[in-house]
Amino acid sequence: MILRRLLLAALVTSALAFGNVSSVNAQLEQPDDLVTIFYTGDVQGAIASCGCPKLDLGGMTRRAAFLDTLRVSGWDFLTVDAGGIVPFAPMDARKWLKAEHLAKAMARVDLDAVALGYWDLAHGQEYAEKLTGWLDQPILATNYTLPSDKIQLEKTRQFEVKGKTVGMVAFLDPILLTEEHEWIGIEPWNKQEDLIKALSEEVDVLVALANVADSSRMVHLAEIYPELDLIIGSHRGDLPSNVFTAGNTRMVGGGHEGKYLGRADFSFDEEGAVADMRNRYLEVLKRWGRRPWIDEVVTDFNRSVRDLLTSPEGD
């Protein structure tokens, strides 16, 4: 047991120290006064690492290993994804396989909340049912409904983290929708005022996952709902990774095709209100390790791609 703890300590210290884009010193023991949320968005089917020659980043199995190591070490945190699961490109058989296996891998990482982006929903009801089935959890969706009893949606969700209550909502930007989305029951953002106000009175931290057209739309959402402490945005990986603010609302993009893992740390004042939030981007590195339950999905993906390429109908 002692050896295992020492090994875990070495793994976490290495991952945090070397994986931090901002080079902020980190330690194994989670600070008692912080609420931590790890987040992704716009992963776009990137189940494996990028294979980049200079710095090979990303991969679901690495993220799973990192988060699992923290959990075993006693960390209490949330993990969320802001949408953008399906690759943003003309779809072919291989890209469909990437989206399928990414969703299946995400289901094994114990995500606390998952939102869908407009492109995830642009391929019809039948595909959305498959996608949410692979994710194997309710989808956070505050301002839209879907006409399917096979898809479970939740408008809000609450979590207890280190004595604090975190509320979570998810918004889909109406201006992104096209005729491909006519099957979706979308509502304007401002129709949720009573819901957001009531939720804000029940929680210590209020976070929105938002699939938006651009950063100006994140600002607009913050202006409608100043109760939001943090907006994690997604849209084709185009949103800025640096934190920007509107009033007391912090905003950040969650892109980069899974090459980075976002980390938001909330601190609180003496009265229990949010005092500050620090954001970091952790490089998803090979040294983070692997987990066999994700490797199984990656192996199945590679096998499926080989079968596709060797079949007479392969692309």
Automatic annotation (TrEMBL):
One GO process term, biological-process aspect: nucleotide catabolic process
UniProtKB keywords: Signal
Record-level GO cellular component terms: outer membrane-bounded periplasmic space
Coiled coil: none
Signal peptide: 1-26
Superkingdom field: Bacteria
Classification via InterPro entries: 5_nucleotidase/apyrase, Metallo-depent_PP-like
Entries under Gene3D superfamilies matching the protein: 3.60.21.10
MF-aspect GO terms: 5'-nucleotidase activity; UDP-sugar diphosphatase activity
PANTHER family (UniProt xref): 5'-NUCLEOTIDASE, 5'-NUCLEOTIDASE-RELATED
Protein name (database record): Bifunctional metallophosphatase/5'-nucleotidase
Species assigned in the record: Eiseniibacteriota bacterium
